[in-house]
Write a structure and sequence with these properties.
Layout (H helix, E strand, L loop, with lengths): L1 E5 L5 H10 L5 E5 L3 H11 L3 E2 L3 H5 L5 E4 L6 H10 L3 E4 L7 H14 L3 E3 L7 H11 L6 E9 L2 H13 L3 H5 L8 H8 L6 E10 L18 E10 L4 E7 L11 E7 L3 E4 L4 E5 L2 E4 L56 H15 L7 H19 L5 E2 L16
Parallel strand pairs: 1-2, 1-4, 2-3, 4-5, 5-6, 7-10
Antiparallel strand pairs: 7-11, 8-9, 8-15, 9-10, 11-12, 12-13, 13-14
Helix pairs in contact: 1-10, 4-5, 5-11, 9-11
Bound molecules: nicotinamide-adenine-dinucleotide.
């Protein structure tokens, strides 16, 4: 397959490098509004060509388009790519508008094109473990779950938004936390086969006073930096997610973490590990989720008295719960990321396109990972009013065996 990538900023390279290694990818072209960034990617990853614009890339004969632009821009570009007859891989979130999500689903349904959202939490080791255990019935009925995405602004986000937003970076750095809900929601619903039906959310108004999260400056009119949402699920259960951007927590230590409470067993993950408990006792299962630590790429945070094996997010390895047997041999030893997720996401998209099947995180699943946050944001703006969450159904049955 031939891939065209729109947006070659800070994150695109981690997946582009993997598609370059994939035996079923024959060509990769790129474009960026900042031409030097596309040229730099061409050089660094040995790609095939640079396009002058997204229009030119969409008019080319690529089979699939990868959207790696800023988080509030995906919906419109995805719709244009689908209209051009291309399969699509989109960075998270799917969109920040319920109307665009509905339009993407309608277009994928009508055309049969592949749509995939690259939610890393779906392959987070704790989520892989919980998905398998819950499906096997080991937890009994899971009636309550929690997902957190804990990423402090002072841990890299100021520099990232300055790179991304240029002179007006403060206007974009105020991006509402609940419009980036998928690392928390996607981890819970990536393990639990249900979806959210209503939400009540509370936003914490920022008080740093540095012009970020200031409604007068924010292009999103947003002053919430931390948010907590309480969802009702279609199976009668409860999900709570947290999106924290002002929080005293180091980078790289389980920024996404999950807890599942079942009638027969409970899994609780924290910054430093995880336990599995039942009526007989409690077991430390942290080592199942270890991946090789951040020192591998020089981004290890300062940790005192903590086993460096606990540092995960930028790891180059996989965890014990990851079954790598389906991955191309070219991925052995290749750079990885987000606790071992990148290899699986890159391969999922190639498998979906080459086998003409919808991937695990298809448009319908992506909507269930994304829309709850959009409605949670609306709830927070109404002081926590409980609001219904639209749902677009299960979508086509995914042959999960094709992704094992
Ligand atoms: N864990 C994860 O899943 C994860 C981690 C990091 C980033 N992301 C997502 O990846 C996306 C990219 O993040 P990033 O940090 O690389 O952002 P970035 O701002 O560094 O890069 C985006 C690039 O897209 C370019 N761009 C924007 N609109 C364009 C257009 N119309 N045509 C061509 N180029 C265009 C910009 O010039 C910029 O270089 C974001 O949506 C982010 O949310 C996901």
């Amino acid at each position: 397959m031939r891939i065209g990538v729109i947006g070659t900023g800070q994150f695109a390279g981690s997946l582009v490098g993997l598609w370059k290694l994939h035996p079923d990818v024959t060509r990769i072209t790129v474009t960026d509004l900042v031409a030097e960034r596309a040229a730099e990617h061409l050089q660094r990853y040995g790609l095939d060509a640079v396009h002058d614009s997204a229009e030119e890339l969409l008019a080319s004969d690529c089979d699939a388009v990868v959207v790696m632009t800023q988080r509030w821009t995906h919906g419109e570009l995805v719709l244009r790519a689908l209209e051009a007859g291309k399969h699509v891989y989109s960075a998270v979130p799917m969109s920040i508008s319920a109307d665009e999500i509905e339009a993407i689903i309608a277009m994928v349904d009508r055309t049969g094109l592949v749509y995939m959202m690259g939610e890393t939490s779906y392959y987070n080791p704790a989520v892989v473990y919980a998905r398998d255990s819950i499906a096997a019935g080991d937890f009994g009925r899971v009636f309550y779950s929690e997902g957190d995405y804990v990423h402090d602004m002072d841990n890299g986000f100021y520099a990232a938004y300055q790179f991304s937003g240029g002179a007006d970076w403060k206007a974009t750095a105020s991006y509402p936390p609940m419009l980036y809900p998928t690392h928390a929601v996607g981890g819970v619903l990536g393990a639990l086969p249900t979806y959210a039906t209503s939400v009540s959310c509370i936003g914490v108004v920022d008080d740093r006073g540095d012009g970020v999260f200031d409604r007068a400056v924010s292009m999103f009119d947003n002053d919430f930096s931390n948010m907590s949402a309480h969802f009702k699920l279609a199976d009668g259960g409860v999900m709570r997610t947290n999106e924290f951007r002002r929080v005293g927590h180091p980078v790289g230590v389980h920024e996404s973490r999950f807890r599942f409470y079942g009638t027969d067993a409970v899994m609780e993950q924290s910054s430093t590990g995880a336990t599995l408990s039942d009526r007989e006792g409690i077991r430390d299962i942290s080592e199942l989720f270890y991946t090789s630590h951040a020192e591998a790429d020089g981004s290890a945070p300062q940790l005192t008295g903590i086993d460096p094996a606990l540092v995960h997010s930028f790891s180059s390895g996989s965890a014990k719960v990851h079954d790598r047997s389906r991955l191309p041999e070219q991925y052995e030893g290749a750079p990885n990321g987000h606790e071992g997720a990148h290899h699986f996401l890159a391969d999922d998209f190639v498998r979906a396109v080459t086998r003409r099947t919808q991937p695990p995180i298809n448009a319908w699943v992506a909507a269930r990972f994304t829309l709850p946050g959009i409605i949670a944001q609306a709830s927070a703006l109404s002081d926590g009013e409980r609001l219904p969450i639209p749902d677009f159904g299960d979508g086509p049955t995914v042959d999960l065996a094709a992704f094992r």
